[in-house]
Amino acid sequence: MKNNLLQNINSPSDLRLIDEAQLPEVARELRNFIIDIIAVKEGHLGASLGVVELTIALHYVFDTPNDLLVWDVGHQAYGHKILTGRRDDFHTNRQLGGISGFPKRDESIYDTFGVGHSSTSISAALGMAIASNLKGDFEKQHIAVIGDASIASGMAFEGLNHAGVTDANLLVILNDNAIGIDPSVGALKKYLTAVKEGKNPRQNNMIKSLNFDYSGPIDGHDIFAVIKELKRLQKIKGPKFLHVITTKGKGLKQAEEDQVKYHAPGKFDASTGEIYIKAEENLPPKYQDVFGLTVLDLARKNEKIIGITPAMPSGSSLNFMMKEFPKRAFDVGIAEQHAVTLAAGMATQGMIVYCNIYSTFLQRAYDQVIHDVALQNLPVIFCLDRAGLVGEDGATHHGVFDIAYLRCIPNMIVYAPRNEIELQNILYTAQLGLKHPIAIRYPRGRGVIPDWQKNYQGNYQAIEIGKSDCLKQGSKIAILSNGTIANNVTLAIAKTKNPEQLAHYDFPFVKPLDENQLHSIFKKFKTIITIEDGTVIGGFGSAILEFASTNHYSSQITTLGIPDEFIQHGNVAELQQYCKIDVKSLEILFSNF
Q1: Does the annotation list 148 as a binding residue?
Q2: Which UniProt keywords apply (predicted)?
Q3: Which one of 26, 103, 371, 436 is most buried, by most CB atoms within 10 A?
């Protein structure tokens, strides 16, 4: 019977009742279960397939949830979720109202630490271990599972550095598959490869030098070998480190052969692994591709242009430039702080640096943005992909805070294009020579102009810094929008009963604001509505309120955007509706004024 063993596992306690000899069958069923669900519902496939045996072994050997298991990032935690009471709900993964795609503390007692960004597991598990010691509990186990891409991050090394001088009962498991979302890079990757190939002398083991009890590397798909080693390490006190070799996408041939594509492949045939191709003819371009193709075109004409991304070359489309100009485009690994200061260093030498970082990940380099870039007024060009609501990845990945956390920084220009042509033009304008750093934020997904590449690419026009634009005249109410949410506003206005009463202004620059335009607006309109896809606290609307207060205007101002809460997962349309910035909600609002 299909899933005969898995269907009876509702918790790790049930798993531990199974004879060890049957665990390979559990692994087969678990792997097939993940494939069958993700083929239909979508999600992060390759990472979870790669750790099936390791996941089973961890819950089989350790007394979870009493022993504390922390997964780094969480892309690989699907098997963990299924074995810890969420098998029957797994089909709701990443859907509105369903379970999260990442470990989440309020979802399960087995999710000991909420994750979504990388490289936090060692610090978190060490904190738990030290707390256990302080409470007099020296038997509890604390396990951090981290990938070879994540362990290259500075924060992971900070955790290792601290742990090595403690007596904390900590086990760090390195899940080494030589890939994150894109292939792992850097000297540490080369070191780990040498260890795997037996080319590194054992006396040169860097982990041992940090005072860890190191073992491995072992085959992470040999479940019996993994269990045997975990049981041995269970009896050893102090910081321990197990090096496990796995294959991302294990068990699905196509996922093993194309690990980048099958990280999150969309819908596919569960039996063959073939990805269902979405028709893309006559569709607008993805914003990331507008960035990637435009920067490549500009780099061909300007040899000072440099591209930098922290581990997201395919996600940001900087891979176009990396392929043609490998010496001028850099993937620095999961190291956002380094990426920003590296860009700053290059800018001091006259280079024009496009530093492409997902909006949510730039939060990890906030100090560097302030001290290393803005304080020195270096014209680094930050390209913030995935700004606004990103959808199914949920609260850890929404790029909704960037307007608020950037506009308070002196010297910083903050810009959000209304469409892909404006994105192209601001990328062009930035390399003409700016006196200040600039952050260009744009969303995940597609634009609105299908024939962009045919008719517009290369036809650049410089943008005047700080300039706004009146998209539509009106007699009663002024609607001020920032970024691509303007397209919702345009559609909503067209559906209202009295569109002639509604004026619409596009303010792409949150900083500097077009104050001349604002004075004209406030003198003409008594009712003003601001709309953005960022947090309303401290965002674009707040900037307009500050302007009104400073200049003693008394117009009624309504600010719309992301409310003061962490927005959960669901598709973008559903989340916009929840935040009342979708077309229908705006239409109703405009009609009621």
Answers
A1: yes
A2: Isoprene biosynthesis, Magnesium, Metal-binding, Thiamine biosynthesis, Thiamine pyrophosphate, Transferase
A3: 103
**Among candidate residues 548, 420, 370, 403, the one with its CA nearest the CA of residue 481:** 403
State yes or no: is 197 an active-site residue: no
215 is in an annotated binding site: no
Is 364 annotated in the active site? yes
Give which of 43, 30, 39 is closest to 95, Cα–Cα. Answer: 43
Going by C-alpha positions, the residue among 519, 563, 520 that lies closest to residue 541 is 563
For residues 278, 279, 283 and 286, what is the CA-based torsion angle, rounded to 10 degrees?
30
How far from the centroid of its chain's Cα atoms is residue 419's Cα?
22
Check if 248 is active-site: yes
Active-site residue identified among 248, 386, 407, 444: 248
Pairing of strands 477-481, 352-356: unpaired
What ranges make up the beta strands (E) of 67-205? Answer: 68-71, 142-147, 170-176
Select which of 42, 336, 392, 587 is catalytic.
336
- Residue 205, annotated ligand binder? no
Q: Whole-angstrom Cα distance, residue 140 to residue 584?
A: 53
Residue spans of alpha helices (H) in 351-392: 359-362, 366-368
Token pair of 429 as six digits: 């304008």
Tens-place pLDDT, residues 217-256: 999 999 999 999 999 999 999 999 999 999 988 888 888 8
Neighbours of 404 (CB within 10 A): 22
The answer on whether 75 is annotated among ligand-binding residues is: yes
Question: Which one from 364, 407, 418, 444 is the annotated catalytic residue?
Answer: 364
First to last CA, the chain: 62
Q: What SS3 class is residue 469?
A: strand
If you average pLDDT over residues 52-65, what whole number do you get?
97
Task: Report yes or no: 288 and 320 within 8 Å, Cβ to Cβ.
Answer: no
* pLDDT over threshold 90, residue 188: no
Sheet holding 477-481, edge to edge: 469-472, 502-506, 477-481, 527-535, 556-562
Asked if residues 243 and 144 have their Cβ atoms less than 8 Å apart, the reply is no
| Verdict on whether the full-model pTM lies above 0.85 | yes
